């Protein structure tokens, strides 16, 4: 494995872990902990593959733990600087007026997916196959982005959704990872997974009323906000990763 492969593995692991857990990994490496110990302490299923690949590349390239630790801390420091400034833009779909924001939901959604270099996470209630989004997600996976999408299920919606499972909308994107909120993890009957958002690389956050459907992207009246930079994208992505780690969100098996 070339040094470039090691650098790519470090970038992917850092993006999967987020700033806080990246620093935790750096600390474990600086302490000279074994791979088995590190994987056991992190307990981050969503990032297990990426961290395992990084540890393997260290051994194959002969990169010392101390150097990898410094490399990861550099990523965390860069994120901290990058997140100090926030740019916020309004997003709108539907009938326009002279003061309507120029950014439309469909445009912003595909741009956020296209901006992801290492990790993308999205959450939606309803989902239907939407060609521009499917193409953007396929391109993201092909360039090595770890893509996680959390969807509601027909069971979880309790009859409020019909037709095929929302997860089926992403069946044409091989390598994409699907998650759901098991009904056994919900606090009360009737609880719904109703959030709609997308986060790219812990630095871009798109919050919207729109589901991941053609209607939500192009036809409905929908409103949202696009945040570029600042702490909120990373905090939102880290929250989702923690829900995955705790088992509140589980991998969707299609069952």
Helix and strand topology:
Layout: H1 3-30, H2 35-42, H3 48-61, H4 65-82, E1 86-93, H5 105-115, E2 119-124, H6 131-142, E3 146-151, H7 154-157, E4 177-180, E5 197-200, E6 204-208, H8 214-219, E7 222-229, H9 232-246, E8 250-251
Parallel strand pairs: 2-3, 3-4
Antiparallel strand pairs: 1-7, 2-5, 4-8, 5-6, 6-7
Helix pairs in contact: 1-3, 1-4, 1-9, 5-6
Low-confidence stretches: none
H and E order: HHHHEHEHEHEEEHEHE
- The CATH class of the largest domain: Alpha Beta
User: CATH homologous superfamily of the largest domain?
Assistant: Endonuclease Chain A
**Strand order, sheet with most strands:** 1-7-6-5-2-3-4-8
Count of extended strands:
8
What is the domain total for the residues? 2
Notes on the protein architecture:
This protein is α+β, with helices and mostly antiparallel strands and 255 residues long. The chain folds into 2 domains: 80 residues, no CATH class; 166 residues, Endonuclease, Chain A, CATH 3.30.870. Helix content is 45%, strand content 17%. β3, α7 and β4 form a beta-alpha-beta unit. α1 crosses α3 and α5 runs parallel beside α6. The longest helix is centred in the first third of the chain and has 28 residues. The protein is globular and about 55 Å long.
